[in-house]
Design brief:
The protein is an alpha/beta fold and 209 residues long. It contains 6 helices and 10 strands.
Length: 209
């Protein structure tokens, strides 16, 4: 919650990597396990974005606590972190929710996380929580974006039970060279080391193909 501490953590992570530049970067895949665990890996991706001509960022975030069908588009006007407010791309949000698989943010079945009472966010009344109420897979990406890009517009989309190809096709109509997609990744947290390495290698190979 401390802006100075958060800024120091992000700046230290970004300064610790020197990735090979990528021209015309349009998307990155970044982990969301937490800065202590996956921050150094995420920094490799976000360091590529320094001074990039990005105007709009779309974050695709897997749902951890909400059960619903579709891709839930944020209804917020701003996305607030300890580093400041980021404007939400409301015009893009309104265009997306006009056709499936995109849906407007609204109440759904949510399993409230055990850490909810430790959060700075007030706990809303039962039955009013949405896919984005407790989701961390999008919010941990935003401070990195704030430090790497400075000014930009943001749209977070929480992914429920949805066909990824349908999401890709729907987004494709609204992308331009100044729009970046961030895919918030979530690989296994519990396999033995060798099994995890085997599964991760299969995932990496699939992405590269």
């Amino acid at each position: 919650r401390d802006p100075a501490e958060l800024g120091r953590v992000i700046d230290r992570l970004l300064a610790s990597v020197q990735p090979t530049p990528v021209q015309g970067l349009r998307a990155v895949i970044c982990p969301h396990a937490g800065y202590t665990y996956s921050g150094p890996t995420a920094a490799h991706a976000y360091a590529l974005l320094k001074h990039a001509p990005v105007h709009t960022v779309i974050v695709l975030a897997p749902s951890h606590y909400a059960g619903f069908r579709g891709a839930c588009v944020s209804s917020a006007d701003v996305f607030r972190t300890p580093l400041g407010d980021v404007p939400v791309a409301r015009d893009l949000a309104e265009k997306l929710v006009q056709s499936p698989p995109f849906i407007r943010e609204g109440p759904c079945r949510v399993q409230r996380p055990t850490w909810a009472r430790q959060s700075s966010r007030p706990i809303p009344p039962d039955g009013t929580e949405s896919p984005d109420t407790w989701e961390h897979s999008d919010e941990v990406q935003v401070p990195f974006l704030q430090r790497a890009l400075g000014k930009f517009r943001l749209l977070t989309i929480v992914m429920g039970d949805v066909d990824p190809a349908a999401v890709a096709q729907g987004l494709g109509k609204h992308l331009d060279p100044q729009t970046l997609i961030v895919v918030s990744s979530d690989l296994s947290h519990f396999h033995p080391d060798q099994a995890a390495r085997t599964l991760d290698a299969q995932c990496t190979d699939a992405i590269l193909r």
